[in-house]
């Protein structure tokens, strides 16, 4: 199993702050550098990272045979 961690696109910090019960247009703020973005964008980035990790894992499964 592979872990995927959401990080700030500018500084790489994992300290992302968002309001409770966020919506796509809610603001996410980096606790490291103060950069902001939308919750929807962060979730799309996270989904893309998950898809890449799953593709790697599937590829590795077939290489082992």
Q: Within the largest sheet, what's the order of strands?
A: 1-2-3
Secondary-structure element order, N to C:
EEEH
How far apart the termini lie comes to 18 Å
Helical segment count: 1
pLDDT < 50 stretches: none
Structural class: alpha+beta
Strand tally is 3
Rg computed from alpha carbons, rounded to a whole number of angstroms: 15 Å
Structural description of this entry:
With 65 residues, the chain is an alpha+beta fold. It has one domain (16-63). 38% of the residues lie in helices and 14% in strands. The protein is built from 1 helix and 3 strands. The chain has a 3-stranded antiparallel beta sheet. Strand 2 (27-30) and strand 3 (36-38) form a beta hairpin. It starts with 15 loop residues before the first strand and ends with a helix. The mean pLDDT is 90.
């Amino acid at each position: 199993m592979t872990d995927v961690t959401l990080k700030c696109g500018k500084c790489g910090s994992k300290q992302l702050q968002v309001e409770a019960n966020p919506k796509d247009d809610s603001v996410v703020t980096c606790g490291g550098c103060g950069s902001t973005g939308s919750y929807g964008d962060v979730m799309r980035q996270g989904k893309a990272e998950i898809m890449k990790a799953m593709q790697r894992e599937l590829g590795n499964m077939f290489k082992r045979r």
